[in-house]
Design brief:
With about 425 residues, the protein is α+β, with helices and mostly antiparallel strands. It folds into four domains: about 1-90, Integrase, DNA-binding domain (Double Stranded RNA Binding Domain, 2-Layer Sandwich), CATH 3.30.160; about 95-180; about 215-355, Orthogonal Bundle (hpI Integrase, Chain A); about 365-435, no CATH class. It has 19 helices and eight strands. The strands form two sheets. It has a five-stranded mixed β-sheet with strand order 1-2-3-4-5. It has a three-stranded antiparallel β-sheet with strand order 6-7-8, with no helix packed on it. α6 crosses α8 (about 160-180) and α18 (about 405-415) runs antiparallel to α19.
Amino acid sequence: MKAKITTRLATSIKPKKTRFDVYDLDLAGFLMRVEVSGRKGYYIKYRIGRRQRMTKIDARTPEQARRKALKELCRVSDGEDPALDRNRMQGITLRHFLDMPHEALGGKTYEDWLFTTEKKKSAVYTVDRIRRAFPCFLDRPMIDIAPQDIERWKKGYADREASGNRHLFYLRSAFRNAARKGIIPANPLHGVEMLAVRTKDGDPEKNRSQYLLSEEEPRLWRAVDEYEERRRAARDSRNATLRTHGLAELPDLRQAEYADFVRPLLIVALNCGLRRGELIALKWSDINFRERLLTVRPLVAKSSERRTIPLNDVVFECLTRWREQCPGELVFPPPARGVQLVSVIRRVWAELTRAAQIRGLVFHSLRHTFATHILQGGADLETARRLLGHSDIKTTSGYLDTEPLREQAAVASLAQGNVLSFEKALRKARAKHGSKR
């Protein structure tokens, strides 16, 4: 059968009792194969020497398939055989792509190649996350992993949409980079959608704002007071035991300004908007007490760009006192050797929010709170972007949790020339927030 292969033809053509081919009238060698099941695929048929060969064209629409077929047929005219290349690519598994060096990546592994475009920490985390989240795909050829496989994988993250989307983002990027570099002929995950983040009526963890509300802040600080009192009481009990056995006592926390790092950490997070990793890596040498400035080093910053944050009176006084109590190199050192501070922060934050009856907030929400406060205080979106260390002003817009702030961001974006028009930004902000005005 011969006909011009179009979208209309592809959707209207009916399967028969046997498989059949439709040869395109516009491009010789391009054809559409219709299976008995109704499934359709695009192919090119060509001759290399005395042998006639056929290879599949991965595309979603006839127009895309025709463009790709033309490129492959041009390769045939130059003496190349696309079928041989496809057979070679068929054997590349996801594990092979991640672990083995590739000529298309400059003789580097995927992790080393990512390191040339991202920070080393991000590259290591990306590859490690793919291995941990997708063990079922590691030993399968990349080109054989279909969207249907991803849909089945998504079912395991029905109640953890955010985590699933992070994992899926890294996998899609890996496939996209492999296709762009010619390691696989096409990206079989093109068009795979992220998990829909579902909301539940009346569930505060799903329907609340992603920043600390004004009525929640006093409860949080009361929980911190109670936490510090427990720490001091535990130290008193420990010292009493040491005295009983005639051993040297530990420093008396009743005489210290802070029971431990928790209160200073929260004050800096709320008043400077630093990420958790930036807080953990913060050094006293990064703080200029004379100029009252805090510097985030490029090696620590997620954007790999240096930024400075002014210290207000609250955080300046806090850090001045905390430096006397913790004079080491790091502002927030691990509480003990071999203990990871990130694990302690996660545990203490869960304890504090539970005691304060605050649900649905993570530690990163303090950064959202900082952004909300400075915008409510009159700062424009560009100022917020610089203080938060975002490379794209659109990322800053996503930190806004109330419609007035979103509209303020739209106006600020217009002033900075970052959007095409005020109306476009405002419509986008209202649509994302769900406004019907």
